[in-house]
Every structure is written in C-alpha cells, then in structure tokens.
Specification:
- This protein is α/β, with parallel strands linked by helices.
- The protein is 27% helix and 24% strand.
- A 5-stranded mixed barrel has the order 5-8-7-6-9.
- Helix 2 packs across helix 5.
- It is globular.
- The protein binds adenine.
- The site of adenine has 13 residues, from strand 5, strand 8 and strand 9.
C-alpha cells in the first residue's frame, strides 16, 4: 500500500485537540454532502512516514456541543481521504466503582439514549432502505487487537492507568448530565460508562464500512453514588488534560502498528457483519 494513503483516522474528544510525536503535513477541510467536518482535518506523518488524519470532534477550540457534532460530515470526510479504520477517543463518566476517573476503557456495547434528535444515517432522506447490522457496534476484531497494544502503551507510560475491556457505554443526550435516578437506572440496565458522543458516530462508521473502536477515558463518577455529589463540569475538567496526555501517548505508541496490522489484514479488519452488502433491501 502506498505510503501517502491515509488509512487511519483518529477522532479526538474533549481535551484531545491534537496528537503528539507526529509530523504535521497539512490541513484539509473537505466539503461533504453533509457539510464540513467539525474542524479542518490535520494530516500528519507517523515515524514510519505513513499518514494519519486527525479530527477534533468538538472543533479545535471545543465550540461544538455533543448534540450538534456534524457526525455525518466527519465520517464522510474521513472516508473521502481513504480512511478505513477509525480510532476514536472520548471522555466518559463511570457507572462502576472499579472504573475510577483516569481509567481507560475499550467498550464493546452501546445503549442509545440520544432521543433521536441527531441525524444517525447516511440513508435518511434517500429512497434506499438500509438496515446496517449493529449488534456488535464496534469492530470486535479491531477492539481485540487494540486490547494488548493499549495495555502495553499504558504500562509503558508508568502512571498505573488501568484498562478495562468488554464494557457497555450509555450514550445520552446532553447538555445536562444525568439525574441520580437515571444514573441508577443505567447501572441496572448494564451500563458501565456514560457519554454524549459515541453515537451516532459509531452507527455512521458502520454504514461507511469503517472499522471503528472507541478508547473511552473516564473523567468522573456519574451521579449514582449515594454519598457523593453529582457530576459537575468542573469535576470532568479535572481529569480531562491528564487523560488527553495519556491518549496522545497511547496514539503515538500504537498508530504505526495499527497501520501494519491493517495492511497485513488486506486493509480491512472489518467483520462480514460490518459490511453494507448485507444491509440494503433488494428492490
Ligand atoms: N462525559 C464525561 N462524563 C460524563 C458523564 N458523567 N455523563 C455524560 N457524559 C459525560
């Protein structure tokens, strides 16, 4: 595969507005049928010379609210650059005692609480009837591959950051955080984490046939702990910068390896169920 191909896209969440240890090449800002992405996309070169595309989900100065992130433009813009695999980062609240603020998590399931206000399909408004398979909302092949690499990168950083896998993330509509009652309910439903950004991004990545994994970085305990205060933005901000530094370290450590793994896998790493040929209703 040619070196100038941009096979990997990285989406940065709150606090993560750039990557480290990469050589900046240029900014691109592709206009898509769904408008412009959240921010111009930085094309950067890895130490190997391979290129990655970095996109700040909330805009570079964090100006875009989770409910209005132009996810269709974001995914479509990355795809237009040739991206096949997306490593997304997002700040999350924890619904479990053992997942303390500062922990990293690779979730494998999602519960959608976004209330249907976000455009969540590329097929909306078209005459194509498509039902993408979404039982496994992340690319399990990619998540499994990531597990040992992210763990190794966290261990090498030496700050004792824990990694959890196989967890369920609740994606809620903001901007307000959850009530205590909602937070307790999400725990009963089997939720382990909560954020406002996993969807519709993961759904759109699936429709675009991209391998997609989320590195969730815990910033706070959500409102379920009876003897503790509820979540405040100030509490979230406390851990945001440290989590972003660790995310940059993880990305810098594993991106070249992701490239190699994808090339070795024929540029895919996407399960059959992640392919749209099984999703479009025949006429
Ligand atoms: N993002 C970070 N912490 C969160 C929380 N507790 N609820 C929803 N989104 C979040």
């Amino acid at each position: 595969m040619a070196d100038d191909k941009v096979l990997i896209g990285v989406i940065g969440g709150s606090g993560l507005y750039h990557l480290d240890n990469l050589t900046f090449v240029k900014h691109v800002n592709p206009e898509t049928p769904w408008g412009f992405p959240s921010s111009p996309i930085a094309i950067c070169a890895l130490p190997s010379g391979k290129k990655v595309a970095f996109l700040a989900r909330h805009g570079i100065g964090h100006t875009i609210h989770p409910s209005t992130v132009p996810s269709r433009a974001n995914i479509s813009a990355l795809k237009s650059l040739g991206v096949r695999v997306v490593l997304a980062f997002s700040a999350v609240g924890s619904l479990r005692e053992e997942i303390s603020p500062g922990a990293f998590v690779l979730p494998t399931q999602i519960i959608d609480r976004t209330k249907g206000v976000r455009p969540a399909s590329f097929f909306e408004g078209t005459s194509i009837v498509a039902h993408a398979s979404f039982g496994d909302p992340f690319s399990n092949k990619f998540v499994n591959w990531l597990e040992s690499r992210v763990k190794k990168a966290l261990d090498a950083e030496g700050r004792g950051v824990k990694l959890f896998t196989d967890k369920c993330i609740v994606c809620m509509e903001g901007p307000q955080f959850s009530t205590r009652a909602e937070s307790l309910m999400y725990r009963q439903w089997g939720g382990d984490l909560i954020n406002m950004s996993a969807l519709p991004e993961a759904k759109l990545a699936r429709e675009a046939e991209l391998s997609y994994a989320l590195v969730a970085t815990a910033t706070d305990y959500d409102a379920w702990r009876p003897d503790e205060g509820t979540v405040t933005a100030a509490e979230v901000f406390k851990t945001l910068n440290q989590n972003a530094n660790t995310s940059r370290h993880v990305a810098a450590t594993i991106l070249d390896d992701i490239y190699e793994a994808f090339v070795a896998d024929g540029g895919e790493m996407l399960e059959e169920a992640g392919k749209m040929k099984f999703s479009i209703m025949p006429r």
